[in-house]
Write a structure and sequence with these properties.
alpha/beta; 12-stranded mixed β-sheet
Length: about 350
């Protein structure tokens, strides 16, 4: 019988894969299961090398729930990963101390420490991108009073003062927004022409970083029917429209403002890669209706890509072994693609 060829990757092939720092999220939900499922996928190990931050006991419990067997290198300190993922076992949570399907201080501290360590590794140049499985915001607030969102957490962890924004991505359409976690009553006053132009520039830059060379962006209006010529509000006439025209004059490919209730239908037909909405739920509702199980959240504007599934911790199905890997897989593949492009030789 003829000898089989050695199909294992060479050291050079392995070293060319980007390194992803993967932080385990909330231990009371589906995050341990999702982390285990990710590390068991040959497709993802072929796309990137992994340094995982968490507790081996929690990951082992997730693997049992997922029904997978993991081949890992386990260490207590950062190590350069080879063909096998590296688990940095922080020993920061005993699985016996996890209260399933409940937001707790212990869960928040676990997720926070994992995320902070992953971010610091990337900021120091030890990883090319960061991914994390879902957090529970209430648990994060227990651990970090005053916690707003992941963007603020990242900025504090790595000392970042530049512009950053959360993007939601579903298949080939991105959603960016001008305002985010503020009351709806404060939205109109927070929308400025400069703010819109800045978000358009950031969105275009992140789209290019993902591989879209000539991004086209549709802009949503704020008011019903995009103001209906001023009958239902003048923001489109006085702020949004002028900002779109100014961005176009600066070389960006932007169109709108379009009525928010049809912009997500219109954008793909006009060859748009992204929709810029004016506030959080204006885009979130549309994106989650179109594909809740496939959506990815990407934190853009930081020195490295940060990606996570757009869904939450799914306490209702925790421990049942039925968590859908689709959005987490898409998040890792996006992070790997963006990281690889950042380090690709010119030309």
């Amino acid at each position: 019988m003829a000898a089989q060829p050695d199909i294992r990757p060479t050291e050079t092939e392995v070293s060319r894969r980007p390194v992803i720092a993967l932080a385990m999220g909330d231990p009371a939900g589906i995050s341990p299961e999702l982390t285990a499922r990710l590390l068991a996928l040959d497709e993802l190990r072929a796309a990137a090398r992994f340094v995982v931050f968490g507790d081996r006991r929690i990951l082992d419990a997730g693997a049992r729930t997922a029904g997978v067997t993991l081949d890992l290198e386990v260490t207590t300190d950062e190590a350069v990963p080879g063909d096998r993922p590296v688990l940095v076992d922080l020993g920061n949570l005993d699985s016996a101390e996890v209260t399933p399907r409940e937001a707790t201080l212990a869960g928040g501290k676990f997720a926070s420490e994992n995320f902070r360590r992953a971010l610091k590794l990337a900021a120091a140049g030890g990883a090319d991108a960061v991914c994390f499985t879902p957090f529970n915001k209430q648990a994060m607030r227990y651990a970090t009073p005053g916690y707003d969102d992941e963007i603020r957490f990242v900025a504090d962890a790595i000392g970042w003062s530049g512009a950053a924004r959360e993007f939601n991505i579903l298949d080939t359409i991105w959603n960016a927004r001008v305002t985010s976690h503020i009351p709806l009553s404060a939205v109109a006053a927070a929308i400025t022409a400069d703010g819109i132009r800045a978000e358009l520039a950031l969105t275009a830059g992140c789209l290019r970083a993902s591989g879209i060379e000539r991004p086209r962006i549709a802009v949503a209006g704020l008011n019903p029917h995009a103001g209906d010529g001023g009958n239902f509000g003048r923001e489109e006439i006085e702020v949004i429209g002028p900002a779109v025209r100014a961005a176009a004059a600066e070389g960006l490919d932007v169109v709108g403002p379009y009525p928010a209730d049809t912009v997500f239908l219109r954008a793909p037909k006009e060859g748009c890669h992204a929709v810029l909405t004016m506030y959080h739920d204006q885009g979130q509702i549309a994106m989650k209706l179109m594909g809740f199980d496939r959506g990815v959240t990407m934190l853009g504007g930081f020195p490295f890509p940060i990606c996570t599934p757009a869904h939450g911790t799914a306490y209702d199905i925790a421990g049942k072994g039925i968590a859908d890997i689709g959005a987490s897989r898409a998040a890792v593949l996006l992070a790997a693609r963006m990281a690889a492009r950042r380090h690709a030789p010119p030309g």
